[in-house]
Design goal:
Strands 1-2-3-4-5-6-7-8 form an 8-stranded antiparallel beta barrel. It is about 15% helix and about 55% strand. It is an alpha+beta fold.
């Protein structure tokens, strides 16, 4: 019996429907942002492949890729994140497609005291792997972006990430939008375990 898992697009659609009611809660959301939490979410990335290649003329130009991520906000200034995405990418000038897959592990610094319009800016560094068909590449990246807390448990994230392939000596880049759900919050966990005083 073959087991069929839902596609990233299907998961993304359900996730966005669940997040929709929280997106309007902007003012209250900023005040509700916890300092420590664990989250998972979906994202969409617009990739620009091969910005400065030392090899042959690149086959890829632009591609949109959906993906998933999970992370842990250690405190208001530091977080860790795992990032995965996979999609078919069109080859420039050809009807054929290649399978693209990428994962990254990153550490990020959040500038909690420099919020703008409710968004907290961050910078980060990442290391991971990129695969196009059967060719694996080790990549390093740095990122800059901003997060905004939406409602009780939802977060909106916007960012950009240039990445460098140590194998092919080329630069790629991506712009991304993510919606995250805080599945565990330290403040709520503490509230549940603190006995009531009489």
């Amino acid at each position: 019996m073959k087991i069929t898992f839902p596609s990233i697009s299907a998961i993304s659609g359900v996730f966005l429907l669940l997040a929709a009611p929280a997106i309007a809660e902007t003012e209250a959301a900023t005040k509700a942002a916890p300092e420590q939490y664990a989250y998972f979410g979906i994202h969409g990335s617009q990739h620009h492949f091969d910005l400065n290649s030392h090899g042959p003329k690149p086959s890829f130009a632009y591609a949109f890729t959906p993906g998933l991520q999970l992370g842990y906000q250690i405190n208001q200034n530091w977080s860790l994140q795992g990032w995965w995405e996979e999609a078919d990418i069109s080859i420039k000038g050809s009807p054929l497609k290649d399978r693209f897959r990428s994962y990254l592990f990153s550490a990020r610094h959040h500038y909690a005291n420099n919020k703008q319009l409710g968004f907290t800016p961050y910078t980060g560094a990442a290391l991971g792997d990129k695969k196009i068909n059967q060719e694996n590449e080790t990549i390093g990246a740095f990122a800059f972006g901003a997060q905004r807390y939406l409602g009780q448990n939802w977060l909106l994230e916007l960012g950009a990430r240039p990445s460098y392939s140590f194998d092919n000596e080329q630069w790629d880049s991506q712009l991304y939008v993510a919606i995250n759900f805080a599945a565990w919050r330290a403040d709520k966990a503490t509230a549940r375990t603190t006995p009531k005083s009489f």
